[in-house]
Structures are given as structure tokens and as C-alpha cells.
Amino acid sequence: MPKLDKPKILVVNDDANSLFALTSLLALWAEQESYEVLAARSGQDALRQVLMHDFAVILLDVNMPGMDGFETAEAIHARARSADIPIIFITAFLADELDRLKAYQHGAVDFLFTPVIPQVLYAKISVFVALAMKNEELKKQARQLSQRTTELTATNQRLTREIEERKSMERQNHAKDEFLAMLGHELRNPLSAISSAASLIGLPGVSAEGVQRAKKIIQRQSQHLGRIVDDLLDLSRAMSGKILLNRLPLDLSALVGQTMETYRATGRSTDYELVQDLDSGWIEGDSTRLEQITSNLLDNALKYTPPGGRIDVRTWTENDDVVLSVRDNGVGIPAELLPHVFDVFVQGSSTLDRSQGGLGIGLSLVRRLAELHGGSVEAESSGPNRGSTFTLRLPRVEHLAAPQPAPAGQRQHGKPRLLLIEDNDDGREMMAMMLSGYGYDVNAAADGLLGLSAALDFQPDLALVDIGLPGIDGYEVARRLRADPATREIKLIALTGYGLAEDLRRVMEAGFDRHLVKPVDIDQLMEVIDNCAQLPVKQ
Fold it and tell me: Pick from 101, 164, 317, 353: most CB atoms within 10 A?
């Protein structure tokens, strides 16, 4: 423990001899009692000393010229810092009761009469010195206790923070474990169906109807696997900011209406009452991503609403926003889950038979895509079995009518001639057979150099080019086709397993007209081929 400062005693007396006598007498015991002695010749000098030091006790002469002892005591005790310093008055004559009262009123704690008796002086100052040392020790202990309390408080706050962080990590790890288990379940189901259907096709004696049903199962489950992969990749791209939006003015109500018509046409909403109230509202957005938002919100409503339930879809304008609302009367959202429905890896449990499956990342993707469009999405629910409402808000733009396009040139009759450049043998063979089955004249090449040669010989109207080719990749194939006058008019569609913003940028810079991410849905491929064949050649 650090050594305490020595207590100080102040002797105030205008008489030099008396002052010397008192200080000398006190000095005899200074080492033994561990204190210091200071002297002052006047009241003003005493006040200066009090401003600089703390004193255990002051021996103050009553009869001094100018500022006497009573006035000095009053001035000393007028300061907050020195108000509690004990003062012993020293007087050369016996004080009567009036003087005693006056002295006590000015803060005196005792009297000493001259000539001072050493034993009496020693007894009196020893008490105050001991008190001063005890007070100093108590102050130090209080400071140490305060510092320790501060340290303990900081430690406690740190431990509390670490505990909360650990609990949060445990919750996240638990959510990820559940997600991985759910992913395994979602992948095994379609893979099992595909495997069984493929085995069925190879069995002897299986009927033609059975083969057709098996093929449809393989096609349907392959599409399901593709959607799972797309969800995972899209979420990863969205969270890392690598989705590049192709933003154009569009009417949100028209896009939502088309999406709902697709649901009706494919039978995905057959068992539900799907009601729409769509008012026009123009925004600037990526139609593909906005359709993805709408589909995910509809899928979520279908997933958590029992068959026979009702789903209301509305669009309207509100101040500077265009609003999309999807409301269902399904299982609802518990209050504790509501703040987390848009978090990654969070999915509410349900007693429903969720035959449509899902990874619980659709709403996370909705929120991120909404934010990329400068909008927001929020969820509301009154609780379990009370349904839920999801509301998307996007910035509204003024709609300016687009100029009418100039009359297009005479369209080529019949289907375009196609060149397929793909290095995967199975993929190339199956796609060529499929395109031929749809009535296209198809030529195929196994690598980039063979593809360039085939383009010169075959002179296709449109080429489907895989990016990851051996030798020269698809980017280089596109650049060479565009550089050659004999092939620069060929429409080019890129096929790739990557869909990041950087991949799309490289594809378009290389000279491609369109970009498709594998696996390609056949209906989408037919639509892109048809639309691309009608476009002017990219220069």
C-alpha cells in the first residue's frame, strides 16, 4: 500500500518569539507522530497557506493586529475545502464565557492558554493528527474501492456482452445446423425421385405410360433442384452486393398480374382462393428480380396457408411509394419470430404438410432485393392462426410514354438455324436432341475452335455458346465471331453456370446478346431464342 502523506499542522502567531517557541515545541514530536509543521505570521499569511495545503489542525492566536484570530477563523471556514479544519485558539489570558461562545461560533474546537503546557499541547494535537491520518486512510480506501467497483462493473459488462455474443453465436449455429439439415432433406427428396424414375425407365416390361410419367417426374424434380440452387446462389450474391440490376421503368401491377397468371396457369394456386386488386404504379426496377420478389412472397403465403385458404394481393400508390401487399389467412407468425422472419436461416415451424418444401431463405432474399431497389419490406401478424401480411414498398417514378418503335423489317419465316457450342458430351447431346425435337435445325460443336469453324460452314442465325470451353473460352469465341464479317450477324446467347454481376458484365462486353444461367429451363430457352432472333444484331 502506498505511503500516506504526512498530516500538516499550521501555527499562526504575529509574535515571532511565540511562533518560534510553538513550532520548536511541535518539532520535538514531529518525527514520532509523523506530521509536518508550517508557520504563518498573520491572518492573511494563514489564508495563503490554507489555499496551498490541507491541515490536520490549526493553532491560531486570537490577538493579532489587522485580521484577528476570530476573523481569520471565519475566513478559513468560509471556504468549502477548509471548512472542516479544526482550529485551536491560543490566548494569553483566560477567556470569559462570551469569548468562548464567540470562538466556538467561529469554528473553534478548543482553547490553549499561554504559557502553553507541553503535555497538554501534545495531547491535543495528537488527537487531531491521528484523526487526519485516519481520514486520509479512509479516503484512500474509498478511492480504491471506487476504482475496484469501476473495474468490476467494466468486467461485468464485458462478461455480459461476451455471454450475449456467445448466445447469439449459438443461436446462429443452431439455425445453420437446422438449415443444413433442411437442405439435405430438400435435396434428398428430388434426388430420390429422380433416381427412382430413372431406374423405372430401365426396367423391362414398363409401360409407355409409366415411362412418360417417369420422364415428367425427372423433369419436374430437376426443375425443383434448379430452384434450390438458384435460391442459394441468389442469396449469396444479394448478401455480397454482387447482383447487377437491369433497371427499366415498369408498371408493378402488370408484373404482379403476370406472375399471378403464371401461378394459375401452372396450377400452383389451384387449392387456394387467390384474389387480386392491382392499381397501376410505375417504378424503375429489374423485372426478373421483381418477379422473384413477388414469387417468393406468394410462395411463402401458399406454404403457410392451409388448402382452401385465401390470399389477397394488392398494389397501389401511396405518397412517393408503389406498394405491394400479400395477405393470407394462414398459420400466422408468433410474436417472438416476427422480428426475425427476414433473417438468413430462419424459418418458422408449421404443422402443415409443406409439400412445396423450401429452405427458409426466400424472405431473406426478398428483403435484400428490395433494398437493392431502394425499397423496403415488412411483415405483420396478429399471432398464430391469425394470418400474416407482407408489404413491399418501392420508390415511385413518373411514367413517360415510350416512343413507338419503328416498323421492324420483314421477319424471317420459319425457325432460326442454331449452332450449339458445348464441351460436355451429355449436355450437348441432350440439348441438341431437345432443340431438334422442337423443330430447330441444329449443328453442334465440342469446343471453341470447332465452333468457329462450324459457324463459317453452317452459317447459323443464332449460336448458343458455353462460356467454360476448353482451348478458347466462350468470351473469345464471341469476340472472334463478332470480328469476322462472315459471322458478325449471328445472334449470340451465352450459357454459363455463373450468374454474378461480373459474369454478366464480361458476357455483354464480349458481344453476346443474351445471358442464361444453367440449368436452363426449356420454356425459358425457347422464349429467349424466339425473342433474340427478332432483335437487331449487337454491334
Answer: 317
| Helix (H/G/I), strand (E/B), else coil: 66 | coil
* Count of CB atoms situated within 10 Å of the CB of 87: 23
Sign of CA dihedral 189, 191, 194, 199: negative
Cβ proximity of 32 and 128 under 8 Å: no
Q: Taking the model in full, what pTM does it have?
A: 0.45
Q: Nearest to residue 21, comparing CAs of 75, 78, 61, 62?
A: 61
pLDDT over 60 (residue 173)? yes
Q: Tens of pLDDT along 348-393? A: 444 333 444 455 577 888 898 899 899 999 999 988 888 999 999 9
Which residues have C-beta within 8 Å of that of residue 129, sequence separation ≥ 6?
7, 9, 33, 34, 35, 56, 57
Of 356, 354, 372, nearest to 364 by C-alpha is 372
Longest CA pairwise span in the chain (Å): 138
Q: Using the predicted structure, report yes or no on whether residue 318 has a pLDDT greater than 90.
A: yes
Is residue 236 predicted with pLDDT exceeding 50? yes
- Count of CB atoms situated within 10 Å of the CB of 218: 19
Q: Residue for cell digits 465440342?
A: 446
The better pLDDT of the pair 196, 497 is held by 196
- Helix H, strand E, coil C: the string for 311-366 is EEEEEEEECCEEEEEEEECCCCCCCCCHHHCCCCCCCCCCCCCCCCCCCCCHHHHH
DSSP H helical segments within 448-521, as ranges?
A: 448-458, 474-483, 501-510
- Name the one residue in this structure whose C-alpha cell is 422472419: 341
